[in-house]
Amino acid sequence: MEQILSVSHISKSFDGNEVLHDISLEVNRGEVIAVIGPSGSGKSTLLRCINQLERIDQGSISVCGETMVETDAARRAVYRDKDVLRKIRLRVGLVFQNFNLFPHFSVLRNITEAPMQVLGQSQQEADANARDLLAK
Q: Per the confidence metrics, is the pTM higher than 0.85?
């Protein structure tokens, strides 16, 4: 199976408070996973690290075979250059707990708006991709 996400031994602290400690997971194409746990257990921080909204302290993260960050010999997280990070960022999305849809858009339009605006896809291409994803 094709691996689309690999998180390996990541750690993240805020002001000396370790929020993520040695977290690893893999997601293969077609898999659906849930990240569950009590409030404050690091679920959102994990997702924010994968989506590059937070930077990890140690470990590695790869998306679709492209390494985003890995730990060097000095045990520091080293991120790839900004062009590679942008390419990876375009492949990852995050829907926040309190997400806001555009109430005047259809479900399909809410799904296709970002690919059209961010990736420059045509309405037809975005619709076709969305319908393919929804059919799976």
A: no
